[in-house]
Each structure stands twice: as C-alpha cells, then as structure tokens.
Amino acid sequence: MLCSSHSYDHPIWISVHSSPIHHHVTSLMQGNKMPRTPFAKSLGAPTPKDYDRLVQRASELSGISMTDLLSSKRTQRVSQWRQSIFFVLRHMGATFQEIGAYFNRTHGTIIHGCNTLERNASNKDVRQIIIELTKKTDGDPDNQ
C-alpha cells in the first residue's frame, strides 16, 4: 500500500517495499539512474515527455488507445493498464498530485490506483504489465 507518509519506517512503507513489483521496479530504476523511492522527487521526477512516452508505450503494448488510457473509462483492462502507469510514474519520483493533474484525477484516485495495483501484485498479468512498461526500448532517449 502506497501512502503519502514520508516516514520510511512506517509499516505501510515497509510492506510496500517488500513486494515483488517494488523490487523489480526499484532494480530497474537503479540501473537507469532513476530515484529509488517514490518520494525522491528531488532526484529527478519524470517530465511531461516521460508521462507521454509511458502512456504511448502502454497504448502500444496493450492495444488500448491513448485517449482511452487518459479517459474516465472503468473497464478492468483499461483500469489495470492505467493503474500500472500510475505505479511506474510514482516509482519514477512523481507525486500523487502531479500524476493526478496529468490524468485529470484527484490525488486520492492515484493513491487508490497504486494501492489496488499493490494488492494485485501476485497476479501474473499485473507483474507482466509492469515489466513491459519498465523495459528499455530502442526509442528511449536514455538508451542511445
């Protein structure tokens, strides 16, 4: 469960950081010189171009249009991909408010989406989505 508390010894913080998804995303982000924690905004939060690239990548991988990913559609498939984007952006250092502003949602919706994704971390499909979203591609600027 991701929370907005900044206390790293908080039980919720500890439980989040023992999840398989967190370990995968953290190891990928460390290799990419990205922030290790979701609260590391000062280390280089994602830019609007990073948001756009991630939504575009999710659209390409899922076959869901960017419009639908940014819309208020609530089908399970669209919601799962959208929440995965929230989760990855959060681990890149974006705040709940910044993610909410991009997706035209409240920060509470983003918190709920991240928490939902954490609860479903044992789902193979969810893990695969996160892996695919965080993979480096030839088109990534950091990969050139």
Q: How would you characterize this protein structure?
A:
- By secondary structure, the chain is an all-alpha fold.
- It has one domain (11-137): Chromosomal Replication Initiator Protein Dnaa, Chain: A, CATH 1.10.1750.
- It contains 8 helices and no strands.
- The chain has helices at residues 11-16, 20-31, 48-62, 66-70, 76-91, 96-103, 107-119, 124-134.
- Helix 5 crosses helix 8 and helix 6 (96-103) packs across helix 7 (107-119).
- The chain is globular and about 30 Å long.
Shape field: globular
Helix fraction bin: 55-70%
Count the strands? 0
Total helices: the number is 8
CATH architectural category: Orthogonal Bundle
Low-confidence residue ranges: 1-17, 31-42
CATH class: Mainly Alpha
Going by helix content, strand content and strand pairing, the class is: mainly alpha
Strand content: under 5%
Query: Distance between termini?
Result: 35 Å
What would you give as the CATH superfamily? DnaA protein, C-terminal DNA-binding domain
Q: Sketch the topology as an H/E string, one letter per element.
A: HHHHHHHH
What is the arithmetic mean of pLDDT? 78
Largest sheet entry: none
Alpha-carbon Rg, integer: 14 Å
CATH topology annotation: Chromosomal Replication Initiator Protein Dnaa, Chain: A
This entry's quaternary arrangement is: single chain
Q: How many domain regions?
A: 1
